[in-house]
Batch of 2 targets.
Target 1
Amino acid sequence: MSILFYIFAAVAVLAALNMVLQRTPVYSALSLIVVLCSLAVVYLLLGAEFMAVIQVIVYAGAIMVLFVFVIMLLNAGHEAPSHRSQIAKWIGAPIIGAMLAEMLMIIWDQFPSTSAAPPPALDGTPAAIGHLLFKNYVLPFEVTSILILVAVLGAVVLAKKEF
Amino acid sequence: MVPLSHYLALSVILFVIGAAGFIFRRNIITVFMCIELMLNAVNLAFMAFSRFLENLDGQIFVFFVIVVAAAEAAVGLAVIIALHRNRKSLNIEEVDSMKF
């Protein structure tokens, strides 16, 4: 079981690197789909079947289709090299590296990898999630519907012809 | 069994890759996809904690993050379409009206 985690973790990291390094948006989008699907496998290994399925259907299925659709619609091609100041690169790279080192150090300190036997797997079935969602989280769930309504209206208004 | 720290390390690495792409990329669609990658890294941390703290609330959080990401993608891509219609470009360097 644990070898699967390391395989798909490596796939996710490599695909994420490929996504950032590609200069053509379509290749980036396809790499991101690979990342999302390998994360779905990792969710399965964590015992969260429902969220793994949601990840594939909603993220890799719906959201990424939207991305690919917009890339095709706008005919987004090769990214032109930058002619502006490179200050973001020279300041950003050390900050990113420091952030990575710091967070890995905190994880190393706070969560020793030689932990005892892990707790038994949780029941991540749709029944358990639905029970929690409609009992403890009814208000956020209902507010979500308003959020989606506003998002739909906003998308229609923004993408309208006469703007 | 994989310890919690390895899940969190994977989450951190993905988040940092996303942040690096956010800074270094010049195409607005790629920048937007880097934001999605960072959201997914945070989702993975939520899932790992949910599993190791034996609490399903983490999975509900991931559920809501996915919902918000979907809404954000719809609005954000509409903004990108409107931007492309007005500027004829997807390069974020050309969109600097609010810069000093």
Target 2
Amino acid sequence: MKLTAHIAATVILGASLCGAADSTAIGDRAPDFSRPDLAGKPVRLADYHGKLVLLNFWASWCGPCLEEMPKFSGWQREYGAQGLQVIGVSMDDDSAAARRLIARHPTTYPILLGDAALGESFGGVLGLPLSYLIDPNGRIVARYQGNGDLAKMETKIKALLAQRSR
Amino acid sequence: MNLQLIKKFTSAIVGCVLIGTANPALAAPKPATPQPAASIPAASLIQPAELAALLQSPAAPKPLILQVGFRTLYVQSHISGAEYAGPGNEESGLQRLRERVATLPKDAAIVIYCGCCPWNHCPNVGEAFSALQGLGFTHVKVMYVAENFGDDWVNKGYPVAKGS
């Protein structure tokens, strides 16, 4: 009994010390969430069930993020009719910074206001940029951390959209 | 209005003005372009493995560790024992950093880090390092985070904590 309690305590302690305890491995169901967009309207990930979702975590202070966003806007225009939905999630501490940035550089896709709890639900957003591809059934099919290879990402998106239309 | 309250408020304003006048570092305006991380000399860098070993060694004296990045990142995960100092690319963050170190001896061992994004894109550590140097601190190290805090610290199994 004592041994069981000791093992349980060790597991709990280990989990509490691990900064990325929540799983978001490829093949896992993406955690559903609801966050406000820039107009304050709540948006749920589940609202996009049936679409191929590119979920992009970014921030106004993140240079590589800002380089990617025009490309993502282009993809939303080009592949939106085929079922792609890009969703941007700002991880700025101050939502005003995200609003200012988007006012100067509008996107063709919705921008939501993220927070630490949302980051933790995805196993920790512990560096930007970070993007997930989520298939029409809500499963994570790819994860891109840091300066991603956008050509490779686009190839993957095209392949997944082709699968979706079959 | 309460007379005592007015006196306290006036004293606080006079105090702030005097501090700003006496210490130019506190009143320095934030540069328009953030100091790049690449401007930090190699001798002032500490690798994550080196810092982790230092923290895990019972005999080694522990530096003051300050996260100079964004609170959203700090709340999710930070180095065990690290304090939040505020983003180095914002004047409010630099002010908080200056206040935190105001009473420390100039030879205090301090490690700052961020890890928000790849090293060459970090807008925070260069500014924070420059501010501490400007204040005369002689034992400041910056943890070199090549990619991000998740990959270079958390996923290596080094000690972390959560919360604000």
